Predict the 3D structure of the following.
Amino acid sequence: MGRVTEVATTISHEEILDWIRRFAADIEAQRAELVRLDTAIGDGDHGTNMDRGMHKALEKLEAAEGADIGATLKAVGMALISSVGGAAGPLYGTLFLQMGSTTTGAGTLDVAGWADALEAGVKGVQARGKAEPGDKTMVDALLPALEALRRAQAEGADPAQAARRSAAAAEEGMKATIPMEARKGRASYLGPRSIGHQDPGATSAYLLLSSAAETFASS
Ligand SMILES: Nc1ncnc2c1ncn2[C@@H]1O[C@H](COP(=O)(O)OP(=O)(O)OP(=O)(O)O)[C@@H](O)[C@H]1O
Ligand SMILES: [Mg+2]
């Protein structure tokens, strides 16, 4: 007889920490690839920017105590804003700060809470960066991920399924940036020459969602 496997219906504070750690590890592993993508249509610093910021975030989390998901996410956001210049650092910083604001005091999140947090984060990125879908930015991975997450939520998916579906949508969104012409950031200076390259920020945004899917699946 197989053992009865319990499906987790909530995401714990420890899982949020594991997600941040896994995202940092994935960024480090993909640093050269993110640099390569940003060299093609930007200034080549996206991998090093994100890697530096996530190392700072991990340092901050090592020193932190307590099990408040909101406080943890805000600490990550603050670390990114204070250690990364350029566009993506403050944008990811805003994403984490906004995710933290909606989850202040929470010790666990259900799928609805996770989706509310991601929605606040993505809205924060859009409010700050003013990017629309199709502008060839991280928004092109983040928005489909959020939409897929909301659909999964409506269908009663558990956190592991919901995160897997949002990561799959983020991957599609990331790939869909290849034929786009950039309309935001340095890549927009290239005009039509930005066509044919995958956006670096959409690629790191996919890693943000895929690291969540891997983390919530293995718990
Ligand atoms: N206004 C914006 N809104 C959302 N995302 C943006 C915006 N501008 C740039 N990005 C994202 O940031 C990524 C580049 O991040 P990077 O860490 O290289 O910062 P940067 O070199 O200062 O950026 P950029 O050259 O685009 O101004 C892009 O691939 C894109 O996804
Ligand atoms: Mg850059």
